[in-house]
């Protein structure tokens, strides 16, 4: 498993990870964490939580990882194939404003991504997904169609949707502690689809 601290990618062995995590009541995994700001916010405001940010791209994590709190960790990995050492650890999974194949995998019900979401979470874990309307429009999706498609993927990954999906507005995006939320809040289309779920069981992969 590759973690990042400042300019350096550092190999992290399972025993060290277990030691770092131990003693924390909750474990957050933030997929597509970008510059890692959300993970830093959670780690700083919730000392009982160990927060892990995962992104394909380590470059944006250099700055924040240099001075990460002891209960935060940044990993360079593909959300489609997260390190197996993380399997079954998450009590809270977030995907905030995905783009690229993280977004298309959710919309297209990609079996590898569905399996990864399933594998990371323990039963009863919380899931939150926020997808900006502009990214959906660029990918050719309307909000109602995206809502149905993403719910289908999440259900296949073993999550029940626990609240009616809703649209976050500019005020809510401004208050949300990620860089993309702030960018969107001041952009042309300040809306994001917000889905919440709870892990109830194992994945039911459905290829229909
Ligand atoms: C729009 S940015 C959002 C960043 C952050 N969540 C925020 O709210 O500021 C989307 C992020 O998803 C990451 N990403 C896209 N596909 C990914 C994948 N397959 N695995 C991990 N990260 C991915 C990108 O590298 C990028 O950092």
- Quaternary state of this entry equals single chain
Computed structural class: alpha/beta
Shape: globular
State the separation between the terminal residues, measured CA to CA. Answer: 34 Å
What is the helix content?
25-40%
**Count of helices?**
9
The small molecules bound here are: S-adenosylmethionine
Please summarize the sheet with the most strands.
Answer: 8 strands, mixed
Q: Which percent range describes the beta-strand content?
A: 25-35%
Radius of gyration: 16 Å
Structure, described:
The protein is of the alpha/beta class and 208 residues long. Helices cover 35% and strands 28% of the residues. Strands 3, 4, 5, 6, 7, 8, 9 and 10 form an eight-stranded mixed sheet that branches. Strands 1-2 form a two-stranded antiparallel sheet. The protein binds S-adenosylmethionine (SAM).
What keyword list fits this structure?
about 35% helix, alpha/beta, 10 strands, about 210 residues, about 30% strand, globular, 9 helices, two-stranded antiparallel sheet, binds S-adenosylmethionine
Explain the layout of strands and helices:
Layout (H helix, E strand, L loop, with lengths): L1 E4 L2 E4 L2 H8 L4 E6 L5 H9 L3 E7 L6 H5 L5 E5 L13 E7 L3 H8 L3 H10 E12 H6 L4 H14 L2 E3 L4 E3 L1 H6 L3 H7 L6 E8 L9
Parallel strand pairs: 3-4, 3-6, 4-5, 6-7
Antiparallel strand pairs: 1-2, 7-10, 8-10, 9-10
The structure holds S-adenosylmethionine.
S-adenosylmethionine binds next to strand 4, helix 4 and helix 9.
């Amino acid at each position: 498993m590759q973690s990042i601290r400042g300019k350096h990618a550092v190999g992290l062995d399972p025993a060290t990870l277990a030691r770092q995590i131990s003693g924390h009541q909750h474990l957050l995994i933030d997929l597509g964490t970008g510059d890692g700001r959300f993970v830093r916010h959670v780690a700083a405001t919730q000392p009982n939580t160990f927060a892990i940010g995962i992104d394909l791209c380590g470059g944006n994590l250099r700055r924040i990882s240099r001075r990460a709190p002891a209960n935060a960790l940044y990993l360079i990995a593909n959300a489609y194939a997260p390190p197996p050492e993380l399997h079954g650890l998450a009590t809270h999974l977030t995907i905030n404003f995905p783009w690229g194949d993280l977004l298309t995998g959710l919309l297209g019900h990609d079996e590898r991504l569905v399996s990864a979401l399933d594998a990371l979470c323990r039963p009863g874990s919380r899931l939150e997904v926020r997808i900006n309307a502009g990214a959906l429009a660029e990918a050719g999706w309307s909000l109602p169609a995206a809502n149905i498609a993403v719910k289908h993927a999440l259900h296949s990954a073993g999550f029940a949707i626990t609240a009616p999906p809703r649209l976050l507005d500019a005020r809510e995006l401004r208050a949300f502690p990620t860089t993309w939320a702030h960018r969107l809040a001041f952009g042309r289309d300040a809306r994001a689809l917000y889905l919440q779920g709870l892990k109830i069981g194992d994945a039911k992969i459905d290829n229909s």
